[in-house]
Amino acid sequence: MDQIRTYFERFAPVGETDWAFFSSRLRYRKVPRKTALLQAGSVENYLSFLSEGIVRCLVTREFEETTFAFVFQGEFISGYDSFLTRRPSGYRIETLTNAVLWQISWEDLQEVYKHTEVGNAIGRFAGEHLFLEKSKRELSFLTRSAEQRYRDLFSEKPRLLKEIPLKYLASYIGITPQALSRIRRRIT
Questions:
Q1: CA spacing 20 to 30 A to 142: which of 16, 98, 131, 160?
Q2: d(CA 155, CA 52)
Q3: Domain ranges for the chain
Q4: Are strands 99-105 and 75-77 parallel, antiparallel or unpaired?
């Protein structure tokens, strides 16, 4: 739980009273690998902080999965659009490894917003982080080739290259595993 406080205090100090109120609303959850945290068609009820593990977000069409995000230890994960709108999600979120989450429900987060000085800042920082990651990825697909997107992973997200299976990496950069193999052969 201290990881969350440290994360927030990079942006704003969190007083003891506010922290006690916020942390009392957090739910600890251990999740085995390959567990769905959110199913497509379900409403997201939690904003989660990933204390341990790796999570991916994906869309399934017929027999094909497309991974569009990875989340690592020390980051927030949520079907945030569904969380905010209270409407069903169009995608799935699942653990790739065993994971430990600290979760706050939508209802409890509304209480944190109402009753703490730092509550709105906490929600804003978590939401801004999720938005910026999404925007960066969309821009990459509009302006970069598949090979450039793969090369960008070396500098921006080297953990992906070490910890994520190649079939998921290929899906993440928008190509087939065979095309990724060709790119890897070409640049090594």
A1: 160
A2: 22
A3: 2-130, 144-188
A4: unpaired
Separation between Cα atoms, residue 165 and residue 180, nearest integer Å:
12
CATH architecture of 2-130: Sandwich (2.60)
The reply to whether the predicted model has a pTM over 0.70 is: yes
Q: How far apart are CA 160 and CA 125, in angstroms?
A: 24
Other beta carbons less than 10 A from residue 136's beta carbon: 11
Low-confidence ranges of the chain (pLDDT < 50): none
CA atoms of 105 and 44, how far apart (whole Å): 9
Alpha-carbon radius of gyration of the chain: 18
pLDDT in tens, 10-30: 878 888 999 999 999 999 999
